[in-house]
Amino acid sequence: MTDTYPLTVDGRTLDVTVDLHGGAGRPVLLLHGGGGPQTVATFGALLARQRPATVHIPVHPGFDGTPRPGWLSDVPALARVYAELLETLALQDVAVVGNSIGGWIAAELAALGSDRIGSVTLVNAVGVDVPGHPVADTFELTPAELARLSFHDPSKFRFDPSALSEAQRENAAANRAVLRVYSGPDDMADPTLRARLAKITKPALVAWGAGDQVVDADYGRAYAEAIPGAEFRLLPGTGHMPQVETPAEFLDALWEFVGTGASVG
């Protein structure tokens, strides 16, 4: 089910599209990365089907043809949008889960200190500045090159750009353009983020695909060290998107952290 919610943030209005999976259980806010909502949609459905969870997947404004107001141009602003979304939906004890730039958004959202958040899970997140461990410049890579860096076993995720329709190619280009807007000029890193991470008081898990070559495991460890009390968990046999490459294994690791309910499917 998909709904669009009108929100007012910092005195300005916008609409946010949200896909909903499941109808009962622990609320989960699942934030996608630069590949778009399709990188978390299948996992969100799996999570709602196999665990007592209601999964909300917002489409970051500007992705997949959704409107993005000009004032919404960085990750902290996007985090404030999602804080307002939680208020509008009146959700409580929300498990916030974000992958890649979605993890950065999740971290900024947790740092805002909303009482509606129960925990935050950062999955191969970007955003923090770690000297000696830069985020790969994915904007300069071909799809095949990006796959080699992203997946533990890229042979299972071969991508043929010629198979895309013209509409799909245009959508992918538009998504990359809006990702550039949100990520800013500093290679997916904000030098001021580390200070905000220190403000996070909710339980935090930093989960990391061991085979990720977009952001390596030491980057992930540094991310966890910047968040008071955060747990770091290395996930073997997977890369930058564990929810895509090893969804069942990632589901077990995630639910061990965010939920106590047994599998219902």
Description:
There is one protein chain. It contains nine helices and eight strands. With 265 residues, the protein is an alpha/beta fold. 36% of the residues lie in helices and 20% in strands. It has a single domain, classed as Alpha/Beta hydrolase fold, catalytic domain (Rossmann fold, 3-Layer(aba) Sandwich).
Features:
265 residues, alpha/beta, Rossmann fold, globular, disordered C terminus
Short synopsis of the structure:
The protein has 265 residues and is an alpha/beta fold. The chain has helices at 38-50, 75-89, 101-111, 143-150, 166-183, 193-197, 217-225, 242-245, 247-258, and strands at residues 2-9, 12-21, 26-31, 53-58, 94-99, 117-123, 204-209, 231-235.
Q: What topology emerges from the helices and strands here?
A:
Layout: E1 2-9, E2 12-21, E3 26-31, H1 38-50, E4 53-58, H2 75-89, E5 94-99, H3 101-111, E6 117-123, H4 143-150, H5 166-183, H6 193-197, E7 204-209, H7 217-225, E8 231-235, H8 242-245, H9 247-258
Helix pairs in contact: 2-3
Output mean pLDDT: 91
Which percent range fits the helix content? 25-40%
State the helix count: 9
Catalogue the unreliable spans. Answer: 261-265
- Please give the order of strands in the largest beta sheet: 1-2-4-3-5-6-7-8
